[in-house]
Design goal:
With about 230 residues, the chain is mainly α. It has nine helices and no strands.
């Protein structure tokens, strides 16, 4: 990667961080209007940065980018927390399905059972805590969403385990950490929405969310790393 490309790449990350900071800061003080620009902009900037990481397998890259686009749709829908909740939930559910497909490009789904068992247990605990607070009409959509979220995080961990000792190992680890942070962010969001308001909720929820998305984007092999690493399957 030449100096100009590297500067442009870093520029997208700086823009994402700045937009995220504006969104978090303004929501912390009760201002909604700036988020209508800044919140989508943060995810758009992460997408633009991921777009430049073109050394990866075409199929993995396409599904990570699709997941980011669907996440952007979810971000926009949730700018209206009540009216857009179901739309946002569906958009993020589809994003997780796209990420699951991306993370199976280097490993078969559930090639290791331990991560699935661990994330299923975590999801079960979160659902058990929240279930009495979730309205009957939302229980099926929330259950479906949590199942997809846990499967995405688990499959990212599976890919990381299977990829140990290969050139893809550092990229798969980023996906695994991103999946864990995504689950953390959504668990905090669910607690804040359904059970009990959290102190500094925008900071806790959105900082973990965008860090997760950035790490998932960083699981794509950059162009200068070459196709050798990207095409190496465990």
């Amino acid at each position: 990667m030449n100096a100009t490309s590297m500067l442009a790449s870093r520029g997208w990350l700086v823009l994402a961080a700045a937009a995220a900071a504006v969104t978090i800061g303004t929501q912390m003080v009760g201002l909604r209007e700036p988020a209508f620009v800044a919140k989508p902009l943060a995810t758009i900037a992460i997408f633009a940065w991921a777009l430049g990481r073109a050394g990866d397998l075409g199929s993995r890259r396409r599904f990570v980018l699709l997941g980011l686009v669907l996440s952007l749709a979810g971000d926009v829908a949730l700018l209206w927390p009540r009216e857009g909740f179901i739309t946002g939930l569906v958009a993020f559910l589809l994003a997780h399905l796209a990420y699951i497909v991306a993370f199976t490009r280097g490993s078969a789904f559930a090639a290791r059972r331990a991560p699935l068992a661990a994330y299923a247990a975590i999801a079960g605990v979160v659902l058990a805590l929240l279930w009495p607070h979730i309205g009957a009409g939302l229980r099926v959509p929330v259950l479906a969403y949590v199942a997809c979220l846990a499967a995405m995080a688990a499959q990212a961990a599976v890919w990381a385990i299977v990829s140990r000792g290969t050139p893809l190992a550092p990229y798969a680890r980023r996906a695994a950490i991103g999946g864990a942070l995504f689950m953390t962010s959504d668990a905090l969001l669910a607690i804040d929405k359904f059970a009990q308001p959290l102190p500094a909720a925008p900071l806790l929820i959105l900082a973990t969310y965008w860090t997760a998305q950035a790490l998932i984007a960083a699981s794509l092999v950059p162009r200068d790393a070459g196709a050798r690493a990207a095409l190496t399957s465990p």
